[in-house]
Amino acid sequence: SALSCYKCNSMSSKDCSTEEFGTLTECPEDVNKGCELTEVISSGSYLPIFVRDCTGETTEEAYECVTIESTHSCICHGEGCNQSWETAGEETPSHPTDTTTIPATTTTEITTIPATTATKTTTIPTTTATDVTAPNAATKVV
Prior knowledge:
The chain is an alpha+beta fold. It has helices at about 95-130, 135-140; strands at about 5-10, 25, 35-40, 50-55, 65-70, 70-75. The chain has two helices and six strands, in the order ββββββαα. The longest helix has about 40 residues, at about 95-130.
């Protein structure tokens, strides 16, 4: 018997989201090994992209849920298993968004702190150099 998976793509249909699953469709023979559910969380004001489809994935280790940068996906075995994050094997469905958001914030904070420190460090030697060796500083500039 052929495997059926939910199929939809939020780029081409509004009926594809966490709550809207698309159509349970029989998978073609070349992609009837499992089902996949993918969400691409975009930065900015764009809505996340949802895709549900059949997969021809034959590597057993690939049948899991993973987050790589802004893409969260689950590949699963079984009829219509890509209906939701839970049915696809995700333990905490709200977690992918949290995981993706946290690194972005942390990166921004880390980037900001050195920039502030660098500015202070640069300002202090400039003041000292002007006070101690104003003539030399003027010579170097000219």
